[in-house]
Specification:
alpha+beta; disordered C terminus
């Protein structure tokens, strides 16, 4: 059975073929409290369309984002909530109002390990997991972490380590909390680390 995937931005149905030979960022979540993640992934979708089109040997056009909503029981309320969230996304979404046949794989601790918190595993074109949860590096570094592997986040941390070391050296006893600001369509957001 081929599941119908909706590309919301263009508002037309496409089959699963659109993901063939692509890296896929699988956004797996429930429906509650995912607005920030959706906003962030919409931003990543936009940034994947921008130049430069290639980084670290990866082409941005070879990356797709697919939302798989996991709902214990679909009812009229959850369908309406899904449709409201879906109307605000620019990437692909699975619309299937029954229990997903692959749900055991998604919840398997040794595979994708989805529990309650949203995750976004990054899959290679061959289906290998390149990052168990790319949301972590995306939240921290944004598009700078492209292609969103763990090592990309680690490289950025090492790249900026000199600055944090210099700040701590120049101000002994300073407790450093990093505040990251980013602007979304919904306004200014802050992350305190």
């Amino acid at each position: 059975m081929i599941y119908v995937v909706f590309f919301i931005f263009l508002c037309h149905k496409q089959g699963i073929e659109v993901f063939r030979l692509k890296h896929v960022l699988l956004f797996i979540s429930g429906l509650d409290s995912v607005e920030d993640e959706i906003s962030l992934l919409n931003s990543m979708y936009d940034r994947l369309q921008e130049d430069p089109k290639e980084a670290k040997g990866f082409k941005k056009e070879d990356f797709k984002i697919l939302w798989i909503p996991i709902v214990e029981e679909w009812n009229e309320g959850s369908r309406e909530h899904f449709k409201a969230l879906k109307s605000g996304i620019k990437f692909y979404a699975v619309e299937y109002f029954n229990e997903l046949p692959g749900l055991k794989i998604i919840k398997d601790r040794e595979r994708l390990n989805f529990e309650i918190q949203p995750i976004a595993p990054l899959l290679s074109p061959r289906g290998a997991i390149m990052n168990e949860n790319a949301l972590e590096v995306i939240f921290e570094w944004g598009i700078e972490a492209f292609p969103f592997r763990k090592i990309d986040g680690e490289e950025l941390t090492l790249k900026w380590k000199w600055l944090w070391d210099l700040i701590l050296k120049a101000t002994p006893g300073l407790q450093v909390h990093y505040i990251f600001h980013f602007v979304s369509k919904m306004g200014l957001k802050k992350h305190l680390l």
